[in-house]
Structure formats: structure tokens, C-alpha cells
Amino acid sequence: MKIKNLLSFRLKYYILLQIQRFKSIKPFSNQIIDKNRNQIYIFLAADYGNLGDVAITYAQTKFLNENSGFQVIEIPISQSLEGLWFVRRHIKKGDIVTTVGGGNLGDLYDQIEYIRQLVVRFFPENRIVSFPQTFDFSETKEGIKALKIAQNVYNMHRDFHMVAREETSFKLMKQYFPKANPILTPDIVLTLNQSISSKERKGAVICMRKDNEKFLSPEQNQFVIDQIHERFNEVEYYDTHINKDKLSTEDRDLELKTIWEKFKGAELVITDRLHGMIFCYITNTPCLVFQNNNHKVRETYHWIKANPSVHLVTEFSDLSIMEFFQREDFNSANMLDLKNDYQLLIKLLN
């Protein structure tokens, strides 16, 4: 997005934010604040059709409920304007504000980045924790300018804490956001365990990107698909993106259960999506993983590489792909214990 368009969005959003200040906050009219407890708020909670982001929100809510004695309150991203004023009216000393993890720290998803900056500006007296993120500011003129704006916001807050989900992002956060006290943990979805299943595994599921993050060439992608159809009689296509918006909590839980059950019924999943790989791991599903066009897949794989059910292709070759599909069966293994890797994050919440 051009900077002038970004600025117009910022101006438009700011005007709407000020108007909302004087309106009733209907989306949160039924939200009960427990006055006997502190609250943890989750901003940017995904209520749209990216199941990776939906799973992050689901896992973050579960993680906060299990690792703090606070009341956890989600602020859906579609209700950010109302949510900022709702939280400002109720927030008190000792409450914590969080923003969801993911891959939206940067100029690619600049509207989400702008809302996160608003959150940081809105609550200068409370601890704010940005859950595990990928640093994704581009080296374009727009990206460099967006990074400078982000530095001015994040480095000014006295109690802002940034969490990276891979080593490259951690190093970049320490370089550009040193006052945000960066720490390193795995993606928050890796705290989930959805491996219990009695289903018989049959066939393959293809869960591949069709966007600008895709790394495979069209020819390589087609070669992989051809090999899958030669190896399996039953092949299904299932993406982590669905065409739905403003999902309720019940809708989100149902969509996650559906894709997890789909994976648990497959002999093999083929994916180049980060959360395609993570969903395979948490459901104990064998998978063949291809990299995307940045570091987030290969570096997230670092956390789970000791599990033989997840096979990452680091260098594409027709021969290696053919040899992989010639296996009689595919590896499956128990999940690893990653609890210790989240201890620094848990300390921030208590």
C-alpha cells in the first residue's frame, strides 16, 4: 500500500475513533467485568476467515486462562474502535493488555499494525504484551518509513513487551525495538494438543498457498500435486483460509475443529502454510512442508524439528520429492514438551 493511502487510512480511522468516543459501546454491552479480579484484554482477536489467526486467538485465550488468575476478555478486530473506548473506561491499575500473535508486525498488514500502535498509545500506564510475532517490515521505502513510525510508538511505552516466535524476528526486534524488552518463544498455537483421535487415516490433504507468500514455482507446485495423485487414491483440498468474516466464538471453534478433524483423518498433509504445518504437529499428522517466501516456516520448524512426523523440504528437487512419496507409510510421533520455552512469557503475566 502506498504511504499516501496508509495516511488516508490512518486519518479516516482516527476520525472514526473520535466519533466512537461519544457513542454507546453496544458490542460490549453484555460483557460483565469481574470487579474482584484483574483483567487481561486481548486486542486484534481474529474473527475473520484466516484459521491460522483464529487458532492463534483461540490458543492465546486458552494460554491466558491457564497461566494467570485474571479474567480474560477478547476484543475482536472488527470491533477495535469500540473496544479501545470500552477498555479505557474499565481498565485499572494492574490490568494487562495483550495483542494477538501472528505475522502482522510490519507494513504488509499495515491496518492491523496501525491498530496495534493505537492500543499501545491508548494504555500508557498498563503493561502491554505483544504475543509471539514475526517481524515483517519490508526494505522498501514504505517499509522503512513504517518501521520508523513503529519504533517511535513501541520504544516510548514504559512497560511494553514484544515476543518473537523465531530467531530472526527476535534479533530484529532487539535491534529496532530494544526498549520493548523482546523475548523469544514458539508460536502460541504450539501450546495446543489436539492429537487424541480414533479415526482411521486415509488419503492425503493438500493445504497450499495461492498468494504472494508462495515460494514454489507453478511448475514445482504442479509436480508435487501430480506426485500426490499418483501416490494416493483419495486426495482432498482444504485451506486454512475460509470465506467468512465476523465469526462468533462458536463459529471459530467449529471451524478449527473441522480442519483439525480433517487433518487427523489423513495419512499425509502437504502444505506450505505455517499453520498448516503447526496444525499437523498438534494433531500428530504426518506432513510434507514446503517453505514460503520468508523465514517464518523454516524457523518455526526449528522448534519441532525433533518430531519425525513433520518433514520440511529445504531444497526442492524432483528426485527427492519422488523418493518421499515412494514410502510405504509416513512417520508419526508423540508431541514434544515445549512448556519450558514459554516460561518467560508466563512471567510477564504474573
Write the layout of secondary structure elements.
Elements: H1 3-20, E1 39-45, H2 51-67, E2 71-76, H3 80-90, E3 96-99, E4 102-106, H4 110-122, E5 127-136, H5 141-154, E6 160-164, H6 167-176, E7 183-184, E8 204-207, H7 218-231, E9 235-237, H8 249-264, E10 268-271, H9 274-282, E11 287-290, H10 296-304, E12 310-313, H11 318-325, H12 343-348
Parallel strand pairs: 1-2, 1-3, 3-5, 4-5, 5-6, 6-7, 8-9, 8-10, 10-11, 11-12
Helix pairs in contact: 2-8, 4-5, 7-11
Label this structure with key terms:
single chain; 350 residues; alpha/beta; Rossmann fold; five-stranded parallel sheet; 12 strands
Explain the overall architecture.
With 350 residues, the protein is of the alpha/beta class. It contains 12 helices and 12 strands. Strands 1, 2, 3, 4, 5, 6 and 7 form a 7-stranded parallel β-sheet that branches. Strands 9-8-10-11-12 form a 5-stranded parallel β-sheet, sandwiched between helices. Helix 7 links the parallel strand 8 and strand 9. The mean pLDDT is 93.
In short, what is this structure?
The chain is of the alpha/beta class. It contains twelve helices and twelve strands.
- Following the backbone from N to C, one meets helices and strands in this order, namely HEHEHEEHEHEHEEHEHEHEHEHH
Strand-pairing-aware structural class: alpha/beta
Low-pLDDT parts are: none
**Whole-number mean pLDDT:** 93
Query: Mind summarizing the main beta sheet?
Result: 7 strands, parallel
Q: What spatial form do the alpha-carbon principal axes imply?
A: globular
Number of structural units classed as domains: 2
Counting H and I runs of at least 4 residues, what is the number of helices? 12
What is the CATH first-level class name of the largest domain?
Alpha Beta
